[in-house]
Specification:
Rossmann fold; formyl-coa transferase, domain 3; 2 domains; 6-stranded parallel beta sheet; 3-stranded mixed beta sheet; elongated
């Protein structure tokens, strides 16, 4: 693998589509910070408001220095950090001053906690009626789960993902990536950007609720409501192909290959490649509807045929036949993927305090106003003085806040 090695990660002025938008980010862990990282990459000035002890994931995973863990670094670039103890009157007052100048406030604690802090929508809208106030948390507030806490594992379980994985054999388990956190984060991004567009038309701010449970239930059921889309039902729940016990990377002579023949021409070519031409006219596999009904048997036939060649041989054969296929990567293999290497997806960059870091490129490409990583993940309170000055605080007032432990700065700031 070859990485581009850049000097210290620069702080750059964004030319992205959200340039000029200021976001107050009162989020922790994964879902909220990942959403605001994307908004920051899109050009927004994201002010990460942290409690005195910092975001809970600052110490999750390997780290060279306390508070700058791998998980934190990956979800908090393109932001500035300020420490505010929102439980103290002076900390709340500072947050309201920041909100006066902001376009968006995003939080991911339960609304009941924001109400206790007197930072509910009505409190924020009182100082800035044009603000977009976005809460991302577990459950819609008009149901019995309203006050329950939520994490990725809990939401995966609540929407049935472990049971779907168990259907292929074995015990129920969670998907080994924070799929609920990161999927809901994308919903936060589109909700915030759409609300900003609406404000441009109407001049009005608003409150937005992005519940994890309902968002993920919609995602899962869009596949698996299936026969119960209809009333009365036309079958059971569960998209047959997706829940097939045979739907998995197929073993080859030396590894695994992922192949996805779907339309008729794909299957004709696959049957020819595995030496089963007689199946081309088999009514069980003629057309998508028939293949879906007989997917277990069809995938079992495919699996047996793929044992005859190596992974490289199959990928080459499928590419030549224009059948959708990819080799199965490991995590280490993903770092060495030739396509990602060619597109410059991975970079090595110098962080001012954390040394040489591997980072990922923004995945989208734009012909105009391209997003850009504006700054590296910040140290806890790295920009406290700077942000408070922007809010109108004099240096002696900032020092009093530091002395009272309402705000904090790193030793070198």
């Amino acid at each position: 693998m070859t990485d581009d090695i850049n000097p210290a990660i620069p702080e750059v002025k964004s030319s992205g589509p959200l340039q000029g938008i200021r976001i107050i980010d009162i989020t922790t862990a994964v879902m909220g910070p990942f959403a605001t990282r994307i908004l920051g990459d899109l050009g927004a000035d994201v002010i990460k408001v942290e409690p005195p002890d910092g975001d809970s994931v600052r110490n999750t995973g390997p780290a060279r220095h306390p508070g700058m863990s791998a998980i934190f670094l990956c979800s908090n670039r393109s932001k500035r950090s300020i420490v505010l103890d929102l439980k103290q009157p002076a900390g709340r007052e500072a947050l309201l001053k920041l909100a006066e100048q902001a376009d968006v406030l995003v939080y991911n604690v339960r609304p009941q906690a924001m109400a206790r802090l007197r930072l509910a929508y009505q409190d924020i809208a009182a100082v800035n009626p044009r603000i977009i106030y976005c809460g991302a948390y577990g459950y819609r507030q008009d149901g019995p789960y309203a006050a329950k806490s939520a994490y990725d594992d809990l939401i995966q379980g609540a929407v049935g993902i472990p049971s779907l994985l168990a259907a292929g054999g074995g015990e129920p388990r969670y998907a080994p990536t924070a799929i609920a956190d990161r999927s809901v984060a994308l919903t936060v991004v589109y909700a915030v950007t759409a609300a900003l567009f609406h404000r441009e038309r109407s001049g009005k701010g608003q409150a937005i609720e992005v519940p994890m449970f309902e968002t993920m239930a919609d995602m899962v059921l869009s596949d698996h409501l299936y026969g119960k889309v209809f009333e009365p039902p036309l079958g059971e729940m569960g998209y047959t192909r997706l829940v097939s016990t045979q739907r998995r990377p197929f073993p080859t002579r030396d590894g695994h290959v992922c192949v996805m023949p779907y339309v008729d021409k794909d299957w004709v070519r696959v049957f020819e490649l595995i030496g089963r031409q007689e199946l081309i006219s088999d009514p069980r596999f003629s057309g998508v509807a028939a293949r879906t009904r007989n997917i277990e048997e069809l995938y079992a036939i495919l699996a047996s045929g793929l044992l005859e060649r190596t992974t490289n041989e199959w990928v080459q054969a499928f590419d030549e036949a224009d059948v959708p296929a990819m080799r199965m990567n490991t995590l280490d293999g993903l770092l060495q993927d030739p396509h990602l290497e060619s597109t410059g997806f991975f970079k090595l960059e110098q962080h001012a305090s954390e040394g040489l870091l591997r980072t990922t490129e923004i995945s989208t490409q734009w012909s105009d106003c391209p997003p850009v990583v504006t700054r590296p993940a910040p140290r806890l309170g790295e920009h406290s003085r700077e942000i408070l000055r922007e809010a109108g605080y004099a240096d002696d007032e900032i020092q009093r806040l530091i002395t009272a432990d309402i705000t904090r700065v790193p030793p070198s700031c």
